[in-house]
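Team,

Forwarding the record for the chain on the shared tracking sheet. I've put the sequence and predicted structure together so nobody has to dig through attachments.
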Amino acid sequence: MQQHRHLGAQEDSDRGLGLLHWSTNALALVSIAVKAIHAHCLQFQQPSPEVSVLLNDLPENDFNTVVKSLVTLRQSNDPVVVTGITPGSFYERLFTSESVHLVCSSNSLHWLSKAPEDLKRNLIPAYDIDEHSRRERLPIVLEAYAKQYRKDFTLFLELRAKELVSGGRMIISLLGRRSDIIVTKFPFLPEIVAQILCVMVSEGCDRQRKV
């Protein structure tokens, strides 16, 4: 969204809002953004712009609930709210150049584009059933994931920079931890998942070769 002096300008007569990795909670965020735009226009006695809401998620995800939510969103706002869905990975181009004013990404950027190459290079499996081996390899695994994340996050920012208008904004929320926290004292997410998988295997819920 642009600064106040730009909201009424003719060249900015519509607003593009891009939501990456759709969830049911995202509808609330979209509604807040749309209401804020309309409230601003009322305050400065300007006509409300048409708003385009563009949602993104992976193609294999179920879009039925999304479509129903979009119908509700379009019917509950006046003036016009135009909605659209862009299937695909957010590690590739999603929107046209300089077309989006606000990008929102909530709890999705912890997903990497692929498994870290350093794990394959060091012959480290994605999941190691042996706890002792896991702990010995932990520094290598952490660095491998950090390296891949830096690469992916940089790519994400470069792609979104091409799609945002000049002066556009981006809101990102994601999981994280402090780098100076001792991992052995404070379990982090992969370790918790590993413990859950071990319990599932021991209880016969899954086969070791599958995990």
